[in-house]
Design a protein that fits this description.
By secondary structure, the chain is an alpha/beta fold. It has a single domain (20-240), classed as Rossmann fold. Helices cover 37% and strands 21% of the residues. It is built from nine helices and seven strands, in the order H-H-H-E-H-E-H-E-E-H-E-H-H-H-E-E. Strands 3-2-1-4-5-7-6 form a seven-stranded mixed beta sheet, sandwiched between helices. Helix 4 (71-79) links the parallel strand 1 and strand 2. Helix 2 (29-36) packs antiparallel against helix 7 and helix 3 packs across helix 4 (71-79). The chain is globular, with a radius of gyration of 17 Å.
Length: 242
Amino acid sequence: MSDALTPSPSAGLGPLGTGAMFDRIAHRYDLLNRVLSLGLDHGWRRRASAALGLSPDERGEILDLATGTGDLAIAIARMHPAARVLGTDPSANMLAIGQTKIEALGGRVRLTTGDAQAIEAADGSYAGVTIAFGIRNVPDRDRALREMARVCRSGGRVVVLELGEPNVGVLGPLARFHVRHLVPRIGALLSGAREYRYLQTSIAAFPSAPEFARKMEAAGLASVSFSPLTFGACTLYVGTKP
């Protein structure tokens, strides 16, 4: 999942949105996700998996973009045992780690390199499309959303999980302090990678939930909804391919 943690494009790891900037941190990535999200990322992915709205006997294939080490792809496969999942990511090192995690799933999850802005698949190829904490890192988000809508079959859902600045509920300010100040420092301490300090900047620059929902609609999706999770620290977006 080249996802939750956004390195600086000036850190010498390649342009924003490429696999090069995640290859260096792949070996500590899963640990960092657990620590930085306080373990809440597991629940967020389960919500995304359920939001696909698949029938119990769905045997189609789900496309998981920016899959990284495969956590969302694995969650989908476990929740929907009849479905198959293809996870793609631009980072070879992230995928290599993910490959060791999918062996117990009997081949129902496949991982390969891929770019969300240019999906190598025919129109309507997938029963659903997901991306967790990755759309923020895609240089051309509108193009990626159009591609996601294009390859999703009619009636299928496009599900997006993305981080945001917490602003919901009485504990919102405390959660916002965690995202703005503690997350970059903890990430840098655990990884030794200065680029984690730029996480808060990338979150703050992401569009508001209503604005991003409008982008999904403009990409060709219908009945777009969004739900803030954990005081708005994460938002779940769901759109249906007409």
